[in-house]
Design brief:
13 helices; 262 residues; mainly alpha; globular
Amino acid sequence: MFCPKPLRLRASAKALLSAAALCIASVSVQAQSPEELLQKADALDVKLEAKEALQIYLELEKLQPDNADVLVRIARQYRHLMADASSNDQKLKLGNIALQYGKRAAAADPKNSDAQLSCAISYGKMVPFMSNKEQVACSKAIKAGAEKAVKLNSSNDLAWHILGRWHRNVANVGGVKKMLASMIYDKLPEASNDEAVNCLEKAVKLNPGRLMHYVELGRVYAQVGRTSEACKYLEKGIAMPSVEKDDADAKAAAKELLASLK
């Protein structure tokens, strides 16, 4: 088909301008210091703009491939993308990428609490899409990562949260999973709802602004029949503003549970 010359020129000009913009953006990123890149990416992370934040973190990774803090941040972006993925296969794919970055972070800095926790978080995100046998196998890694994280930094509220959730899940595990657990562990690890409460109360005390702690604590109380306390913490979580990636889903689950308790 014949294309008039002015139209062809305009199309060529647009293509050149787009290419030039990409080149300028690339040079701009390369010209920034690692500190500036980190600050820019962190700002996007706070706004939950995972794709944009990830691009900058990956540029930073090229400059600092063994920086555990950067690797932890990259893992988090892949988990955020995992939450937005439409298929289970895609979720698991992104979760496994996050897991690999978490493993690199843990190896790069064995004394970094967040780095040691990263894999536990990624495993936790993937568990709903796994078989019972895979879930039990991951349980061991989740517990180990959370325990190491709190040992390195007792003020890591997210680590206490993960450990509390682990206790709640294992304390209330079903018969099939118990049988599988006995095959994977020497014996089923000790877990209790009381310990789940202790861990989650620590998480709340350390970071009272994190709504997921209240919701999870409410879930534990609901499981042990302490309805009034369950309602108190669920209502508290629901009333808080959504800030983190999982907050909206946590609120939705809390509302559903709260309705069933009343």
